[in-house]
Every structure is written in C-alpha cells, then in structure tokens.
C-alpha cells in the first residue's frame, strides 16, 4: 500500500523509496503526504505563524542548539516552506534544499554564505542579466569573476586559478539559449575538487537534473516553470550531495557539527536566511507547491509549442535568426538532445532590419509584452532595451545579445493559436 504510512520517523526512508519507485509527477504529487499532514489533507496547509511555542523551555534551547528538530522563527524555516523544500529536493533527486524569497535571493545566497574576499569564480558569460549584475557586485566586494564562454569546457579550464571556489553556469542561457558544456565542466570540477553550481531555471528539474552532470549545488527560480502560474516569487538551492564540503575552505566551525554533506546548507540557512532574511513566505510556498504538481504536463506542452513556433519563424524570410536548442541550426542542438528531455519553452529571435521589433511585439494579440518566464501565458520582451539595458552594448555583444533580439517564453495556450499569432504579426 502506497499511503498506509504517516509516521515521521520513517519519512526519510519512505521518501527515498518513493523517489526510486515512482515517476516524477507521482512522486511530487504525493510528497506532502509522506509526512504527517493535519487531518490527512493532500496539501501541506499554509502555516502563517512566525513563531512556535514550546511547553518545555529546555526543548526550545535544544532546537536552537540543533540537538533536536523543530522550528525556531519564521525567517529560518516554516512547515509550509519545508514541504516545498522537500518537493524541490525530490524533483532534483538531491539531498536537501533551502527555499528563498526569489531566484535571485537563492543566487545571492551563494555570495552571502559561501564566498569571501579574494575568492575567484568562473561563470558562464551567457547569463540572465540580473545574475551578471550580481557577479559585478561580487567583483566590487573584493571577489574576482572570470566570465567565459562556457559552451566549451576548455574556456572554463583556462580560467581556473588556485583561488577558484566555484564554477557557475545556466543550463540553457537566458535569453540567447547557449547550452553550457555541462557534462565536461562537471567532470573538470570533479577532477579539480571545485564546486559546480548549475542554474536549472530554464530547463527545470523535469527536463534535466544537474546532479547527473556532477553539480554540487542546483539553483532554481521557483517563480518560473515550477510555480508556473506567475502568482508567486520564489527560489531554491538544492545540495545534490555530490560535493565534498570538507574540502571547501569557507565553512565556519559552527556548521561542522554534523557530517560534511550537511555543512553547506547549514551555513546557507544561517548566513543567508537567518542573517540576511530573504525568506520565502508560506502563502507563496503554497502557490508554488500547487503549481509544481503540473510541471511535467506544462513543460511537455510548452516545449512542443516552442518548437512549432520556432520552426515557423525560422522558415519565414522576414526573420533573420532564431535561437532555440530544439532547432537543428542551433550550435548545441545535439548536446541539448543528449542532455535534456526536451528543449524547453524559451527561445529568442531577430527580425530582418526592415521590421521594427517594437512594432512586431505590438502586433501580437495573444503573447503579452512582459518580463517573466515559464508562465502559463506566452510572454515576449525586447531584452536589449529592458533587462540588459543597464549593462550596456559592449557586454550585450559579448553575451550574443543583438539590439533587436526578442525573447519569447512560450506558455500553454493551444499550439495552433500561438503559431498563428507569431505569424500574423510578421505581416506589417
Ligand atoms: N535564473 C534565471 C536563469 C532566470 O531567468 C531568472 C529570472 O528570470 C532568475 C534566475 C531569477 O529568478 P527570480 O525572478 O525568481 O528572482
């Protein structure tokens, strides 16, 4: 019997068995019920309390000292958020996860909790604009960052120094869709004992698990396809259990009480959530958890539609270029096919110079001009004039972002409606 158990002490073992036994959607749909839920509810309820009372004051002290489990204060953890953390961990096949107020808060936690002055990071140059901006901030705080073309492991290897603490890449880069040389970078990091961090936002754990290429930490913006409905911000860091934290020099003694596999998340939860406070709220966690139940269905649909729209645009003489890893013309088409279940919902394209990109966007009837991704609704944006405006033309050029590049995040509308919308807008 699958759900004949509601016993907390067996939960970890049951959780591991379930992940091995059942498929992706079955596992996440039923993950909350593997631990005791109030009144047998299928969803973990929304707990809005920021504090928890203990009848024995000594028990509270033991919770603070990590000698027994329990909640201390809402900034560091909450039962509803913990249920989502468990779901994300299962999706990634990881060891444990921490949720944050947004994807950027999760990425910021890497700097906040794991890096120090003088440390060196090798990052893909092909990145979401705010992440690129964040590495600039780290540079201004005494860190060093080498931004390299991570579609070839040789560039990553050439940039490594004795001070390199982390290699950071996105799976499919937002917005130009370059695919990082994930497997070979993972092998390089493993051989050199360097932490490999993969931002899995564009693929999602349904299409790809970075653990399979040796990532030690995985970033997900939960705001995107995991939540899917565009109604809650959130982010997560998942420890895959693959990195040996005993070789990482930046862990404080206070977080070394348990076995090394737990050190990093203990430090991140304290240094980022407790001290910095970018915590995910329980209502947002609930929205995201409900959205996550249908991610497989949504990703199948939006990936198939993205391919159909990308193919239509590529075949049209008024379109100069389409960047989508699912197209044979994409430089990493073969690699993407090997690594990912499908090529996801994001592509970008450029029109021939005679068509103004803003006029084109204004002719779209279904697709919404808006700055978000992985939503049920199709979204479009001229990235050089918005998200990548601040970083300037020179850096945009280095990232492969043309001045008229249009980014498209395909939703779950009917495929034929989407193809028609993008086609009709070509007719000036
Ligand atoms: N990582 C990638 C690849 C993204 O595209 C984004 C946002 O678009 C983020 C991280 C940041 O996520 P959030 O908007 O939840 O802060």
TrEMBL record:
Keyword Transmembrane helix found: no
Cofactor field: pyridoxal 5'-phosphate
Broad EC category: transferase
Highest taxon listed in the record's lineage: Bacteria
Pfam families: Cys_Met_Meta_PP
Modified sites of kind N6-(pyridoxal phosphate)lysine: 224
GO CC term (a single one): cytoplasm
EC number(s) given by UniProt: 2.5.1.49
Example GO BP: cysteine biosynthetic process from serine
SUPFAM superfamilies in the record: PLP-dependent transferases
Keywords: Pyridoxal phosphate, Transferase
Record's keyword annotation contains Chloroplast: no
Single annotated GO MF: pyridoxal phosphate binding
Coiled coil: none
PANTHER family attached to this UniProt entry: HOMOCYSTEINE/CYSTEINE SYNTHASE, HOMOCYSTEINE_CYSTEINE SYNTHASE
Family statement: Belongs to the trans-sulfuration enzymes family.
Protein name, per record: O-acetylhomoserine sulfhydrylase
Organism of provenance: Collimonas arenae
Taxonomic classification: Bacteria, Pseudomonadati, Pseudomonadota, Betaproteobacteria, Burkholderiales
């Amino acid at each position: 019997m699958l759900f004949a158990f509601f016993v907390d002490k067996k939960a970890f073992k049951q959780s591991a068995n379930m992940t091995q036994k059942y498929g992706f959607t079955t596992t996440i749909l039923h993950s909350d019920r593997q631990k005791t839920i109030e009144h047998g509810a299928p969803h973990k309820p929304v707990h809005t309390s920021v504090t928890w009372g203990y009848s024995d004051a000594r028990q509270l002290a033991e919770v603070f000292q990590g000698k027994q489990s329990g909640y201390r204060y809402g900034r560091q953890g909450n039962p509803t958020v913990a249920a989502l953390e468990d779901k994300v961990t299962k999706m990634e096949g990881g060891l444990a996860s921490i949720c944050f107020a947004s994807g950027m808060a999760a990425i910021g936690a890497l700097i906040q909790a794991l890096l120090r002055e003088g440390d060196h990071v090798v990052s893909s140059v092909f990145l979401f604009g705010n992440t690129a901006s964040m590495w600039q901030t780290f540079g201004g705080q005494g860190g060093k960052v080498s931004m390299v073309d991570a579609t070839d492991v040789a560039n990553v290897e050439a940039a490594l120094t004795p001070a390199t603490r982390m290699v950071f890449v996105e799976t499919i880069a937002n917005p130009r869709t370059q695919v990082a040389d994930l497997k070979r970078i993972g092998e390089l990091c493993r051989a050199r004992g360097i932490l490999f961090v993969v931002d899995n936002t564009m693929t999602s754990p349904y299409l790809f698990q970075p653990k399979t290429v040796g990532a030690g930490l995985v970033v997900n913006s939960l705001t995107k396809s995991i939540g899917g409905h565009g109604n809650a911000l959130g982010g997560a860091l998942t420890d895959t259990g693959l990195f040996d934290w005993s070789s990482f020099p930046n862990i404080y003694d206070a977080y070394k009480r348990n076995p090394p596999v737990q050190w990093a998340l203990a430090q991140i939860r304290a240094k980022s959530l407790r001290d910095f406070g970018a915590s995910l709220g329980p209502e947002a966690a609930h929205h995201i958890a409900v959205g996550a139940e249908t991610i497989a269905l949504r990703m199948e649909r939006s990936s198939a539609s993205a391919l159909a729209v990308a193919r239509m645009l590529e075949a049209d003489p008024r379109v100069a270029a389409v960047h989508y890893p699912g197209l044979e013309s994409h430089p990493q088409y073969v690699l993407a096919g090997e690594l990912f279940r499908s090529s996801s919902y994001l592509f970008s394209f450029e029109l021939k110079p005679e068509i103004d990109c803003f006029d084109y966007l204004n002719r779209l009837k279904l697709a919404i001009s808006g700055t978000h991704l992985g939503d049920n609704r199709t979204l479009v944006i001229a990235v050089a004039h918005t998200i990548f405006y601040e970083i300037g033309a020179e850096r945009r050029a280095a990232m492969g972002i043309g001045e008229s590049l249009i980014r498209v995040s395909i939703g779950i509308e009917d495929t034929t409606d989407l193809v028609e919308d993008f086609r009709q807008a070509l007719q000036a």
